[in-house]
C-alpha cells in the first residue's frame, strides 16, 4: 500500500514539474523566401516575463510589429497560458542569414531563444507576406494626386484630384486630414464634393475601389518648376484576418495608417514675348468676349448714363485688370463699380467681370465713346488675340451749348468743364426791393449784430487758422489719417461681408491684391509671395510688416478649408486695416 501511494506522489510531482517548465522559443513562418517576400517571426513563451529584448534583425527591415498577443484559458481544470511577440520582416538582399537570439526574464532567470537560419533567394512570381495586417494595409491602400497638366502656361488652370484607392477585401472605416497642402505660388480654389460615391477602377493592374476626397483648381503665378505639396491623411483600414466569428464570417482588424499623396512638380511655361500686345494685362483663357455698352445714347445735359466694360468667357477672370474707359472731357466720369459673376469648376473660372462707369454730360452736343481694345492669350491657339469694341455715340439733346471742341481724355475721376458764354443767364438782374420794416435800421439790434459779427469772428478765424497750420505741419498724423482712409477704401467690401466666411475671405484677399496693384504698380502675374516681399522691402517697408502682409494672404488661403468664427473674421479685418495703414506710412 505504501508503494502505491509513493507512485501516486511521484506522478504528481513529475506532472507539476512538467507544467512549471518554462518555454521560450522562436518560430519563423518560413526558412526560405524570395527577396520580394515577407517573413513572420514569433517569440512565444508559456509564462509571463519582463525585459523582453528582440534580436537586431540584421539584413532585414522591420515592416510590422512588434504585435503582442496573450492567451490565458482553463480547460478541464488545467491552466494554459501563452504570450507572443510577432515581427514582420522584409529582407534587404539575397543570401543566407541568421535571426539572432531574443531574451526575456522570467521569475528572475534569463531565457534565450535558439537562432534561426533563413535563406533569401531571388524574387518569386507570387510573393506572400506572412499574413501581416500591417503589410496588407500598406499594399492595399494608396492616396494618389492626379494632375491634369504638368506643363501649363502661366495663369493656365490645372486641376488636382486626390483619390484614395482601397484594395479588394479591405475597407476604410474612417479618415481625417493631418496636413493640408498650402499651394504656394498658386491661386487656388477648392471644388466642393458632395456625397462620396465609391467607384471601381484598375490601379497598377489590379481591381481597386476608390473615392475622390478633394478637388482643387490651381492657377500658377510663377514660371519654372513649382512644387505641389502632398495631402496627408490618417486612415483607419479594416484588414481581414484568418479568424472567423461563430456565424462563419471573417473577423477584421483595424489598422491606423498614415498615407500621403507625395510631392509633385510641374513645369510652368512663360507666356511668349513674341507678338505680345502693348495693352496686355495678363488675361489668359479660351474664347473670351469683350464689349463696351451704354444703357442710353440720348439724354439731356446733367442727366447720367452708365457705360459698362464687360469681359466674359473661360479664363483667369479674377486675376487681370480691365481696360479703362476713355470719354470726352466735357463728361464727368466717376470711379467704376466692379462686379463679377464667376464660378469655378474643374475647367477653371467661367463667367463674367465688368466695370460700370457713371457718366454725366455737361453740355449739349454729340460725344463719342471711342472704341476700346482688350488683349488676352488664347490657350486654344497659343497666340495673343486682341478684341475691339464698337464706338458709341452719345447724343445730348438739351443743355448749354458747346463753346469749343474738347478732345477725349483717359482715366477716371471728375473732369474740368469749360464754362459757356451765357453761364450767368439764370441770375435775375431787375430786382423789386421793398422795406423790411418801419423801424430805422441804423442803431437797431440787427445793425449792431451785423456790425460786431466780423469782430467776433476774428478770434475764431485765428484759432481755425492755427489749427489748420498745426495739422499741415503734422506730417506723420496726415500720413496716418490718409493711410487709414486708404485701408478702409480697399476693405469696404470685406467689411460688408463680415459674418459670411467664404465671401469675406475672398473679398479680403481681393482687397489686399488690389492695394498692391495700386501701390506697387505690378500686375497679378507677378503676385508671388516672394515677389511681394521683395518689392515691399525695396520700396521701404519693414521686413516684419511685409511678412505680416504675406501671412495675412496665407490666412485667407487657409480660411477656405477651415471653419472660422465671427471673432476670427473681425480680427483678420482689423489686422488687414493695421497692415495696410503701416505699409502706406512706411512707403
UniProtKB/TrEMBL annotation:
* Signal sequence, renumbered to the chain: 1-20
Q: Which UniProt keywords apply?
A: Membrane, Signal, Transmembrane, Transmembrane helix
Keyword Aminoacyl-tRNA synthetase part of the UniProt annotation: no
Q: Where are the transmembrane segments?
A: 446-464
Keyword Nucleus (UniProt): no
Give the matching InterPro entries.
BatD (IPR025738)
Name it. Answer: Oxygen tolerance
Q: Which organism is it from?
A: Salinimicrobium marinum
Q: Which gene encodes it?
A: batD
